Records
---
Amino acid sequence: MDVAQQAVDELAYLAEEFSTAPALDEMERRTLADKATAGPTSAHVIEEVHTPLNFAYTTFTTGSTAFQNIVGVTWSELPERERSGARALSRAGARPDDTVLLCYAPLGNVFSRGAFERAQVRPVFLSRSSRDAFLVALCRERPRVVVGESSFLRASLEDAKKLGVWDAVPEGVHLLCAGTPLDLELLPIAEEKGAVVHDLYGCQEFGWLVMDGAPLRDDLTLVADPQREGWAMLAAGGLPTGDSFPVGGTGHVLNPAGIIHTYSRKRTTPELEVVVQACTAQSALTLERACRSILRIKGRIVRMAPDVVVGAPVNELALMSAWPENRMVAVIDDPEKTVLFARLLEAQERYQATSKSDPLWTKGR
């Protein structure tokens, strides 16, 4: 045998038997079932992707007004995200071992799998993305909690009467309405079955934030909307959500004590940008990278102030409005109200402290 060929054979043996880099079939697989989102939709294809290890998972915005944008969820932000999801399920009356029916599978990503585990509930999905399939699941699974879009739920209950299955629809189900503003026409038909309707507001970027007008997270801030009297803009962990709401008055239509009227929301005009005036990161380079990361994975514009203070005891975030003039709307510097920003900064620092494990990225000398 040729000496060179023999060397190739020996190298092939070593590469297969002793390499620390995994082969394709040895790589960890994170399936839809692993993410607790293993349900059908009519709006997606299932595509395998290489997901970086520094992400807990990736998902997409709903894209109700434009193309969907990719969202990265970091490991650092999971605890608060899971806690708010479990809190929403608890407020909806979910108890251990209950079934929670999700009408739209990607809503599971807003909860994060850990929320279902914290609440000790069993998420189930429709067999097909249709109102007929929903009615079948509702009557057969008899869930305590249903998570879905309110107009879809209203139309489905109307169909139940037309199709002769109304009497099989279970009584007293909690309907967690999410994804779009609450369809108030759902309320009377839900009442006929003793169903309890809830208004759940949140997004793929930040998780669940408000339920029935009351916060689900401790790091939410309401900032008076200068363009609309009696309205407020919402920031989650120091980052603006892009939505404004009427606040106060007689309370939320489902909860007199809820001051945030999420069913009447409008997009904030113009959307606020964040300028970091001080941060706990020890270097401006780390902060600069974190600002870029937040734009890419959360779709929020975050910039560094020219005179930013690094290594500060707290994060100080200025919310800026670019129109009709560039001006500061509010400053958030309470550590309890900047938790999400702090978690994303923490994720950036962790990433920088971990060298790339794939040897293909190691440049030769």
---
Amino acid sequence: MQFYILQIFPEIGINESFDSGAETARSMAESWDNQWLDLLQNNSSNNLYGAMTNLGVFFAVGTLLFFMMQWLKDVIYSEYSRPISGLIWPFIVVMLLSNTGDGSILSSLTLGVRNFINTINQQVVTSADTDQTYQQALNMSLAEEVAGSLIRPCQSLTGEQQNQCFAKASDQVDGLWQEYRNLYGNKVWIQRLENQVISLKFGTGNLSDTSFNSLLVNTAQTSIKNFLISLQYAFQNLLEATMLLIAALGPIAIGASLLPVAGKPIFAWLTGFLSAGIAKISFNIIAAVTSAVVINGPAENPNANPDLMWFIIFLGILAPILSLVVAGAGGFAIFSAISKTDGLVKGRI
């Protein structure tokens, strides 16, 4: 899920902060895409993937001896049925590990699977987040922090100085509301937050009222929110790095698949790769659905003043844990299905 939020640096300027956030999101996505191409296709004879492919070939040659010993044993005791089906594996290993310099068949298949997972993920995000609810929910929470960072210093002032401080803060944050309206339209939550700031500007609100708690939260809560939002960014990048790491280890799994064992390493490798993809899709589904609950519920109520700390905690900690649990269960199911299918195919050849 590609998104951006407003960085909490009012002194930089609202417009610059939005542009910086959008550019950072695009740059990160492009950087990951380029990294995948550099690893799996561009000059794959001399890069990291080429070295891993050579290591996979070494494993394949080393395990070929064990394979041949088992194959000869099957020839003697199994009436040729298992040996004939077993001969498929050496051809598969050689075919997948053949590297022409522009990428092996394995690297092309791996990149294709990754692109397929990303396509499905984008379709999920598009269908589940049609109204940009994920971005809205995050920006709704951070809008309170931005407004609060401007208004909070005024609390220590009194009289006319305080009024002037509120007026100046209100003028500064006007650009924030306009940027949000440009992105999401004239939403209720935007108008509600703007009205709260206007009430302070004209002295019609009381600083002790609970309706302004979200704007006047302490800096510790702001720091916690920033940390949790950074934590979910880190988790999404960790999933991408995990998929890239598993992709790089593919040649070793292929080379070790000639070992005469029931569970082929290639199945475990494929399961791990798909599990990382399931975790990525699961997180985006959880985030989009939970965001819709926030935006279609309290955000649409002009009298509500929701505390979104629970939402930030959920995205930063609980949603990653839940998506990993779902991915683990799904990966186990995939591994079991592949293993049973492999046994069925062998029994019919």
---
Amino acid sequence: MKAHEMTVHTRTSPQAPTHDELVSVLICNYNYERFVGEAISSALNIDWPHVEVIVVDDGSTDQSRSIIESFAPRGVKGIFQTNRGQASAAEEGYRISQGKWIMFLDADDVVHPSLIREAQAVMRPGWSSIQFQMRLIDESGRFLGSVFPKYRKNTTPEKIRRSLTTTASYPTPPTSGNLLSREFLDKIFPLQQGMDIAIDSYFLATAPLLGDVITVSKPLVSYRIHGKNHGAQLTLDVARIALDLRRHIVRTAYGANLAREFGVDIAPDRWRYGFYNLAMRIASLRLARKTHPIQDDTVKNCLRDGLIAFFNPQGLTPLRHVAMSFWLACVAVAPKRIARVLISWRFAPTSRPKLVQRTIQSA
């Protein structure tokens, strides 16, 4: 069956209230001695009676191990493996976890104490993921004045599913901003080896297809920008944009293939019409055409696909649809020097002038 024909639950009341469910917080760490202690402490401070904290250290060469082991008296389980990448570390943590609800917390992020209670309040049968907003903080933990993603008030699991099936895109936070059900995760574990190094590539591409993604418009996780993130950029890095574009294309195909195993048929090339992928495509074409990862792609192709994207809901406000289309057009025709500035504003949030930042937040 097609994805938009999936049987979904319309019940909006939560599951029978219970505080007996075990929550597993899985922290994957690699050389984050500066931050991992704060991440562990935030997980231990979650306001929920049953939380297990598992930290998988992926072959760190700094002092991470001693920091992780210092939390052992508080019940934190430490696993130490040779370096195999975040997805491998997450899989190892998941293998030994026992929780019915799972959170993959990045070692440089911080979770708010009320996150699980906020999630429990909106749960309904068939949920796969509950997603939150995130606060941007700097290396020292100072709030940078920005909260993301920008969810619409009428965001529903059905609209998220339709957006993903038509554009391979929907407003969603990275790894730490999601609480996941084991019932869903058991469908994607064991992971397809080599698909991606990041664990969120596996579940963001599939959660709306194999269940309901429920949205909570509250910033309950702090996302730290410090220059070594796998996601957000502190300064513009064009090579990383091209790498992320490749990853998005691969994970879109992965999502389509896995969904097909469960009887859900979607197009593997729908990534062409997502605004985020379009932004990466045109940035790569304008600033690094020789290393662009899509053969025979052109700026003209991006503008054509952008026109199609404009008429496909992606969980954005009408104003943001207009703004993204206008940005694409400006980057396409602007002199390279100006295009670089516009691209930097898009991919390196800290480079934005305050006026631009306020405008984006209000859109």
---
Amino acid sequence: MKKRLSNIELLRILSMIFVMLIHVTYALSGKYYSQSDSLMSVIVQWITMICVDLFVLISGWFGIHFTIKGIVKLLYQTIFLALFAFVVCILSGYAHFTIGGLWHCTFGIFSIYWFVWAYILLVILSPVLNSYVEIATRSQFKFLLLSFYVFALYAYFTLKVDPIFSKGFHTMSFIGIYLLGRYMKLYNPKWTQFSKKIDFVIYICSVIVSVVSVLFLQKYHQETLIVEKFGNYIAPTTMIGAVFFFLIFTKFSFHNKFINWCAISCFAAFIIHMQFDMHKLYNEVFQRIHSEYPLPLFWLVSITLVFGMFILCVLIDKIRLYTWNKLFEKM
């Protein structure tokens, strides 16, 4: 069993915290971009927009090893925790039992968890991708990536060409990010060899460009352009920010048992807070906090609450891990 690298596990945890925080910004506006009265909300959203890309880059950096057990384990985790969140909402009186609700937590989980189905398909395709990486020369691999992202940029800059691909909510965009992660790991090109400070500056510049552009578009009521051009995971600013933020964590190393222990279960935070009924409650909680606290205090309280919820989800997932281990031993 490979030793977990706490620097990358810390990045995995931060990625999930970013997911939860970006959903706070969605809760304030009710849309997939920040339309609130706060510059801070816009900044937080585009600081955290890199969240999904980071997860896939981590997979690409280490490489995915396809196993049926791995897919079953991910499905078990998703269904177990979705059902857990559903039951908690029912027992607390926030939701009522319905066949539809049960369906969304079991056979219909992909209707809620788009990331899960997109990632599972990436896992299924990983043997083909890995085989190409093994046999291709560096120049062939580089040409493939350039071709992929030329096409992706075309889809990005052309409205209504391919809204699924251009927004990055699809396995197709994951393939490009995964291969980019493999390329960086295997060949360590010159642009990955900057210092951590330069990597961070590039990341901050990507955030600044996004925020300024979004504020400009908001001024002229171009909400569609915000959603289609900036509020997605394959936008150039998002990709650049994700890559260089990721590279920071590859340039130092340490070992911490607690971070590794939390990182094993960090995906639980996504599953639990995105369960259909729980997510409505999640939005209502932060909307209420927003209405009761001044803005600076709101973000202090919200960030603290997100961290607390993250730790709680990790603890809940340990129950899931226990049941999985017992079941797998019998299997």
